[in-house]
Amino acid sequence: MQSAKCVSLKYLQGSFDLVQGVKQYQGDGKSPDGSYFRNRGYGWGEIIVPSQLVLTVQNGKKKEKIDIALFFKQRWGKLVGSRRNALTTTMPGAVLLTGKPGKYTVSIRSLQTWLKKAQQACVNPHAKSTTTENRTHREEREERAFQKELRLLEERRANAMKLVFQKGFNPKYGNEQWEARSEGRKYILERTDNYSPSEGTIPIEIMFDLIPDRVTLVRRI
């Protein structure tokens, strides 16, 4: 591991687009630009570009750009405005890097420490930042909106359908998938969602039917 100075943190908004004219045989997959393609059938397809949280670090004489969004999404959820602000204001002076040039990642230990400070900053609206002394009125409004959103999210999770998923296989596209069965219906977890068997039951919401009354695509809440 080696230490690198943190220079800046930038959030890049993701996108979701439906496209037509997709061939039946065109398979799902990830493109070199980081976007995901999924064949929905009947000539339709989805192009999903995940949002990014790009950390720029000074590593010796070179600057490296590292996307650290996945770590925080998995452990904190959607990167809403208040969370992005908290991550920006608690950005550490330096982090530990692992890997090799061109393929560096930030160490889990550094990210875990950062996450704890950011969560504390969100819980305590008067927490001092390493980069600002006072929070603006706009940030305070975003914090109140975030707390409201968090309460609504917890309500949705409490009232949502809950399923345990297991590893399955999609013979049409030749790829693995997380799936569950309940009351004679198969539920397929959106492939951009992460899941581990150790999680057990998770709350989900329905996206749309892949096969009416038989197979349904869902995503985790």
How would you describe the overall organization of this protein?
Strand 8 and strand 9 form a beta hairpin. This protein folds into two domains: 1-121, no CATH class; 160-218, no CATH class. Mean pLDDT is 82; it is low at 127-133. The strands form three sheets. The protein has a six-stranded mixed β-sheet, covered by helices on one side. A five-stranded antiparallel β-sheet has the order 7-6-1-8-9. It has a four-stranded antiparallel β-sheet with strand order 2-5-4-3, with no helix packed on it. The protein contains four helices and 15 strands. It is globular, with a radius of gyration of 20 Å. It is of the alpha+beta class and 221 residues long. Residues 136-163 form a coiled coil. Keywords: Coiled coil.
Set out the fold topology.
Layout: E1 2-12, E2 15-20, E3 29-30, E4 36-41, E5 44-49, E6 52-59, E7 62-67, H1 69-76, H2 81-89, E8 94-98, E9 105-106, H3 108-123, H4 137-159, E10 161-164, E11 166-170, E12 175-182, E13 185-189, E14 201-211, E15 215-220
Parallel strand pairs: 13-15
Antiparallel strand pairs: 1-6, 1-8, 2-5, 3-4, 4-5, 6-7, 8-9, 10-14, 11-12, 12-13, 14-15
Summed up:
This protein has 221 residues and is of the alpha+beta class. It is built from four helices and 15 strands.
Approximate strand percentage:
35-45%
Mean pLDDT, to the nearest integer, reads 82
Largest sheet: 6 strands, mixed
Low-pLDDT sequence parts? 127-133
By helix and strand content, what is the structural category?
Answer: alpha+beta
User: Outline, from the CA principal axes?
Assistant: globular
- Return Rg in Å: 20 Å
Tally the helices.
4
Number of strands: 15
Q: Tell me the count of domains.
A: 2
What are the secondary-structure elements, in order, as H or E? Answer: EEEEEEEHHEEHHEEEEEE
Share in helix = 25-40%
The N- and C-terminal alpha carbons lie at a distance of 35 Å
Physical arrangement of strands within the biggest beta sheet? 10-14-15-13-12-11
